[in-house]
Amino acid sequence: MKRLLALLSLCVCASATQITGPIKTPYGTGWSGDILIDCPSGVNAAGDVIRRWAMKVSVVNGVLNPPSGSIDIDPGDAGQPTGRRCTATYRPANGGQTWPETWLVTTSASPLKVSQIQAGNAPAPPTPINPNQIARTGAVSGQALVWNGTSWAPANAVAGSAAWGGITGNDPMDQQDLAAILNSKLTIPTSGNDTDCVHKDGTAGPCGAGTGGGYGQTWDSLSANGTTWDAL
User: Fold this and answer.
1) Is the pTM above the cut of 0.70?
2) Most buried residue among 24, 70, 189, 219 by CB atoms closer than 10 A?
């Protein structure tokens, strides 16, 4: 068993990041004990499937895995899912209380110290499922996963059919769509002054020019009477 652990601790993977000490006590002296490292399954940057693994690493007077002084761990920021993290449980040589911490190992050509991979919180992996792991199941180009009321299945994405103000086929929550909708319903005058108002007949002219001829007062608003626009 010791031989197996030694081989695991000295394993050098093509995409691995080298982790080194020192590991010190709060008093500045070298810490001694064992660290149990537990890392999850995943797919590395080379596309190799890595099963969940665990190993015990010794620390003597702050030196990690003597005499080499380092271990190699596949980085969790490469491959899938990204954000993979390991749990490191410290067991002091003097028999004191153990404690766990989270290691987030990143891709690095240079060795990283343990202090550089320690994390206070363990974030959930942002990509729990690799898209390449989803079976095609008859999907064709341009289709998406759509909920059919029972399960997720490949299907053509259906355009929204939201209705708002009697205008269908567009999403008014999208500012660009809303601008296009309103512009398509307005008659924009081609001439006029900066202070003019747009009248119900689509022309521009002075605001509040009285009643008749499509004019209203400056405080008026327009209301549809079923046939034309009238001032209120």
Assistant:
1) no
2) 70
Residues 6 or more apart whose CB falls under 8 angstroms from that of 132 comprise: 80
Cβ(74)–Cβ(44) under 8 Å? yes
Quick check: 224 pLDDT over 60?
A: no
The whole-angstrom separation of Cα 86 and Cα 54 is 9
Cis preceding-peptide flag for 22 (omega within 30 of 0)? yes
Cα–Cα separations (whole angstroms), residue 132 to 79, 122, 127, 128, 140: 11, 25, 12, 12, 15
Q: Name the more confident of 137 and 182.
A: 137
* pLDDT for 86: 93
Closest to 62 (Cα-Cα) out of 113, 116, 11, 6: 113
Place of tokens 């989803």: 134
The answer to whether the beta carbons of residues 43 and 134 sit under 8 Å apart is no
Residue 81: count other Cβ atoms within 10 Å of its Cβ: 18
Beta pairing class for 99-103 and 86-92: antiparallel
What the chain holds in terms of domains, given with CATH numbers, is: 2-119 (2.60.40), 163-225 (no CATH)
116: phi then psi, degrees, rounded to nearest 5: -90, -15
Q: Are 68 and 104 in contact (CB under 8 A)?
A: no
Question: How many CA atoms within 13 Å lie on the side-chain side of 221?
Answer: 2
